[in-house]
Design a protein that fits this description.
- The protein has helices at residues 58-69, 77-82, 102-117, 130-142, 154-157, 184-199, and strands at residues 17-18, 36-43, 85-95, 124-128, 163-164, 167-172.
- By secondary structure, it is an alpha/beta fold.
- It has one domain: Uracil-DNA Glycosylase, subunit E, CATH 3.40.470.
- Strands 1-3-2-4-6-5 form a 6-stranded mixed sheet.
- Helix 1 crosses helix 6 (184-199) and helix 3 packs across helix 4.
């Protein structure tokens, strides 16, 4: 199955993103082999930096480093996929500014919902940053599950027992792109959250 052929935005209604920077994972995979889904914020402004754009892509490099920090020896996004780790974004277009409006997150969460529904064997969700958390909460509310992750600072709620589709959901910090590595404390917490998810599949 090729994910990019299964999910699509039809009318691009959102006003605070760059529609010409729309990207979804263009990878061939067996959805039943996916055990962890990592969701980060938004597509990069340069498509060459996207997760599956090659080993030099910044999203791929910083994410691989995050998994290395969690003691998983991998060197590419493709290797993560072979481990059963799927990488995607909550918002499929690049940002126009620093933040993303709630309406945009809610709109794009419909696409994310269809995307996540393809992975029936998932054992854990890694929610990297506030946008990913908001998107999953929006999906859960539509499905009648209620809020998955409570409001509050990430450092205060990390480590709680949160469930999405009856599977553990780990709220964490954004690991993709140039912002990764600015604060060593956040990098350590990201590694701890990834390691906790990995323990569920090893």
């Amino acid at each position: 199955m090729k994910i990019s052929q299964c999910i699509v935005c039809v009318n691009f209604p959102c006003q605070d993103v760059k529609h010409n920077r729309y990207v979804v994972p263009d990878v061939e995979l067996d959805p039943e082999k996916i055990k962890i889904v990592l969701i980060s914020e938004a597509a990069p402004n340069d498509p060459a930096d996207y997760y599956y754009a090659g080993e030099r892509a910044s999203y791929a490099q910083t994410t691989v480093q995050a998994f290395n920090d969690a003691d998983l020896a991998v060197s590419s996004a493709q290797e993560l996929l072979e481990w059963g780790v799927y990488l995607t974004t909550a918002v499929k277009c690049g940002k126009t500014g620093y933040g993303i409006e709630t309406a945009t997150v809610n709109e794009c969460s419909v696409i994310l919902e269809h995307e996540l529904a393809m992975f029936t064997g998932v054992q854990a969700y890694l929610l990297m940053g506030d946008v990913a958390i908001k998107a999953v909460n929006a999906i859960a509310r539509r499905q009648g599950q209620g809020r998955v992750i409570p409001a509050g600072s990430t450092y205060k709620i990390r480590g709680g027992d949160f469930r999405f589709n009856e599977k553990p959901a780990f709220p964490s910090y954004l690991q993709a792109g140039p912002s990764f590595g600015i604060e060593k404390s956040k990098r350590m917490m990201i590694a701890e959250d990834i390691a906790a998810a990995l323990r569920l599949i090893q």
